[in-house]
Structure formats: C-alpha cells, structure tokens
Design brief:
disordered N terminus
Length: about 200
C-alpha cells in the first residue's frame, strides 16, 4: 500500500505517471471542448483519443528516465547496454549502486519507450481508420488496444529491471500486479461491450 501510494508524490515518482495522466485528461478535455462540444460526445471516442495522448506522454516520460538514469535494468551481458555514471547520478531517492559500477546494464526504460512508440503507431493507424470509417470501428477500441498491450509490455520488462522494485507480492512486483489488474479490467470492459450489456453511444 505504501509503495503504490508513492506514485502520487513528486519526490517519489518523478511525475512519470502523474504527468502522463494529467496531460491525458488535459488533452481529452481540450478535444471535447473544441470538437463541437455543445453536442453529445461519445465517451468511447474520448477514451480513444485519451489513450493515444497517454501513450505519447508515457513515451516521453520513459525517454526522460533513460536520460536521467533513475531507472535501469539488470546486467546486459553480451547485449548492448550502458553503465551508470557516479558523477552524473541525479536520483534523489536512492544512493548510487556501487556494485553496478562499470557493468553494462539493460536500458529498460528505453526498451519501454520503444514499445510505447510502436503502440502509438498502431493507435495512429486505428485513428486514421476511425476518421475515414467512423461507423465501422467500435468506440473504445484504441483504449482496449493500449490497455492490453502496454500492461503486457510493462509486465515483461519488470523481469529485467535492476532498480529497487519495492516489496514483492506473490513473487511479482507492484507494477506487475497493477499490469495484471489493468488487463483484467480491460478484458472485463471488452466482455461487457461485446455481450451488449453496455452499448457505447454513437458520435
């Protein structure tokens, strides 16, 4: 509980999550306000555009993590990697890991940024289809894509994260637990929409 609560504090999270969520809501509100806002707006479409905005926000956040060095991976062995620099160590939340000095490490946040980039490209493709054929694409599809692909990406990358992951829960990190919960929620929403329990309104 205490570990998950740290994401709401700037000095602990570095605004990686909160800035992404914040700008996602800002982007979504601006789109709603300037897109014929006097008429009914389908929440599924808002979720589509918001998921794309959040994807790009997290992409740039992971680029920042890579450049700062606060997040890093395990030893990369024969794989390309980078070494932590004591002179440029800027993390305020942890001391420099002396045992990793001069050891090539997996650039885990960079891997995540690359994954987010391709997810964003896929979402952009779906967005073009929505614009050309809005009636053929179910509202919320982009949210479903992002809500499944990113948690899978994050879950897998946690296995090569070398920085402190906090207390393990049933052998999984807090991020992996959150990823599994996110996948469950998205699958539940897909089931609800697919079975007709809830039908998203048209634009």
């Amino acid at each position: 509980g205490a570990l998950l609560g740290q994401i709401f504090f700037v000095e602990k999270s570095g605004l990686v999550l909160m800035s992404g969520v914040f700008f996602c809501f800002i982007f979504g509100f601006c789109y709603w306000f300037f897109s014929n806002w006097k008429h009914k707006f389908a929440p599924g479409r808002l979720a589509d555009y918001g998921s794309l905005a959040l994807c790009w926000a997290c992409f740039w956040a992971r680029i920042g993590c890579t450049l700062q060095g606060c997040c890093y991976g395990t030893a990369s062995g024969n794989w390309p990697g980078y070494s932590l620099n004591l002179e440029k160590w800027a993390s305020q939340n942890a001391d420099f890991p002396q045992h990793l000095a001069n050891i090539k490490l997996h650039p885990a946040p960079l891997y995540e940024a690359i994954g987010l980039f391709f997810i964003a490209l896929l979402l952009h493709f779906v967005l073009q289809v929505i614009r050309k054929h809005p009636k053929t694409v179910l509202p919320g599809l982009m949210l479903f894509i992002a809500g499944i692909s990113y948690p899978i990406l994050r879950f897998c990358l946690e296995f090569i994260r070398g920085d402190d992951r906090g207390q393990m829960i049933l052998g999984f990190t807090a991020s992996q637990i959150m990823s599994l919960v996110a996948i469950f929620i998205i699958l539940l929403l897909m089931f609800i929409v697919k079975t007709g329990i809830y039908i998203p309104p048209d634009e």
